[in-house]
Design brief:
Blueprint lengths: L9 H8 L10 E2 L5 E2 L10 E2 L2 E2 L9
The structure holds zinc ion.
């Protein structure tokens, strides 16, 4: 087993773990009111940037 040669200080541990935080997923709200991921087609209405990209059964004709 590999054994560390020197003790990592609390400061060093904190520096290493500064990148460990889980990023909060970005959420935007579509014009239909549904929360969606940014730069992606809305899964509820199939709209992206104000135009219909995917036809949905529930979409108003
Ligand atoms: Zn939508």
């Amino acid at each position: 087993m590999a054994v560390q040669q020197n003790k990592k200080s609390r400061s060093r541990k904190g520096m290493r773990r500064s990148h460990d935080k889980v990023a909060v997923p970005a959420v935007i709200y579509c014009s239909c009111g549904e929360p969606t991921a940014p730069h992606s087609v809305c899964p509820a209405c199939g709209m992206y940037k104000g135009r219909q990209v995917i036809e949905k059964k529930q979409a108003t004709e």
